[in-house]
């Protein structure tokens, strides 16, 4: 079956431009997460949705970062006035649900969007 | 102290070797534990969920010690295709919340 897809796969932006990154989760997955991965580091959490509700946005680095999932399916991560330090791979992951069983909490990642800010 | 700490690596081993990765985590509220594998310039892929009693999947064995907040991954009979970065991962707190990743340990298996 189809996995998580993300678009675009690569994005080059000039400093100060706004960008929008899209994530299509696995069909039927309730949970959706955004992570940022800098070179040589593990992914770092940005924000979490359960259906359309954004339940945790504690990882968003500044108010220039905004995420939405209006119909509980596709999600968009928007970065306004991009800065060079925003250059990273942005990973989206989805999970079946948020139940108590370990398997419920497994997350499956998309291929990421590699953002380069010049 | 980082929330998830892993062996710094890299680990360079010959084919057929057994290699062990260790990981400690600081958040005692974490309830879900995983090992992910990440190939160069690819996304992380779930390798194993780690159960309280420990679990095995083919050549891979994962162990969890909640009292010591310690997780391990053992790979037996290493293959060239095992070469990758292995990420130790715990969840932030209650079920379904964010994952916290270690920095990863790079494994290189040579013939």
Q: How does the SSE layout of this entry go?
A:
The complex is a heterodimer of chains A (about 120) and B (about 110).
Chain A lengths: L4 E3 L2 E4 L5 E6 L6 E7 L6 E7 L2 E4 L8 E4 L6 E5 L8 E8 L11 E3 L3 E5 L1
Parallel strand pairs in A: 2-11
Antiparallel strand pairs in A: 1-3, 3-8, 4-5, 4-9, 5-6, 7-8, 9-10, 9-11
Chain B lengths: L3 E3 L4 E4 L4 E7 L7 E6 L5 E6 L5 E3 L2 E6 L4 E6 L8 E8 L7 E3 L3 E6 L1
Parallel strand pairs in B: 2-11
Antiparallel strand pairs in B: 1-3, 3-8, 4-5, 4-9, 6-7, 7-8, 9-10, 9-11
Describe the protein in words.
The complex is a heterodimer of chains A (118) and B (111). Chain A has strands at residues 5-7, 10-13, 19-24, 31-37, 44-50, 53-56, 65-68, 75-79, 88-95, 107-109, 113-117. With 118 residues, chain A is mainly beta. In chain A, a hairpin with a 2-residue loop joins strand 5 and strand 6. The N and C termini of chain A lie far apart (37 Å). Chain B is built from no helices and 11 strands. In chain B, a hairpin with a 4-residue loop joins strand 7 and strand 8. In chain B, strands 2, 4, 5, 9, 10 and 11 form a 6-stranded mixed β-sheet that branches. Chain B has strands at residues 4-6, 11-14, 19-25, 33-38, 44-49, 55-57, 60-65, 70-75, 84-91, 99-101, 105-110. Chains A and B meet through strand 4, strand 5, strand 9 and strand 10 of A and strand 5 and strand 10 of B.
Number of helices of chain B: 0
The assembly state of the depicted protein chains is: heterodimer
How far do the termini of chain A sit from each other? 37 Å
Helix fraction of chain A, binned, reads: under 10%
Mean pLDDT of chain A: 93
Rg calculated over all Cα atoms of chain B: 13 Å
What are the defining features of this structure?
heterodimer, A: 118 residues, seven-stranded mixed β-sheet, 47% strand, globular, B: 111 residues, mainly beta, six-stranded mixed β-sheet
Task: Give a quick rundown of the structure.
The complex is a heterodimer of chains A (about 120) and B (about 110). Chain A contains no helices and eleven strands. Chain A has strands spanning about 5, 10-15, 20-25, 30-35, 45-50, 55, 65-70, 75-80, 90-95, 105-110, 115.
């Amino acid at each position: 079956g189809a996995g998580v897809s993300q678009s675009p796969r690569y994005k080059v932006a000039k400093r100060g431009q706004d960008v929008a990154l899209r994530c299509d989760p696995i069909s039927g997955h309730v949970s959706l997460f955004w992570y940022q991965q800098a070179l040589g580091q593990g992914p770092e959490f940005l924000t979490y949705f359960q259906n359309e509700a954004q339940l945790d946005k504690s990882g968003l680095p500044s108010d220039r970062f905004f995420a939405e999932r209006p119909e509980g399916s596709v999600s968009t991560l928007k970065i306004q006035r991009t800065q060079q330090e925003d250059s990273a791979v942005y990973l989206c992951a989805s999970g079946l649900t948020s139940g108590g069983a370990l398997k419920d909490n497994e997350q499956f990642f998309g291929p990421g969007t590699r953002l380069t800010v010049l | 102290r980082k929330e998830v700490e892993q062996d710094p690596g890299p680990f360079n081993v010959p084919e057929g070797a057994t290699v062990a990765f260790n990981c400690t985590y600081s958040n005692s509220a974490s309830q879900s534990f995983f090992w992910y594998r990440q190939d160069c310039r690819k996304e992380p892929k779930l390798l194993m969920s780690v159960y309280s009693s420990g679990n095995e999947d083919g050549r891979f064995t994962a162990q969890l010690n909640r009292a010591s907040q310690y997780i391990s991954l053992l790979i037996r009979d290493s293959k060239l295709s095992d070469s990758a970065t292995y990420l130790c991962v715990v969840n932030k707190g209650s079920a379904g919340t964010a994952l916290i990743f270690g920095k990863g340990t790079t494994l290189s298996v040579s013939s």
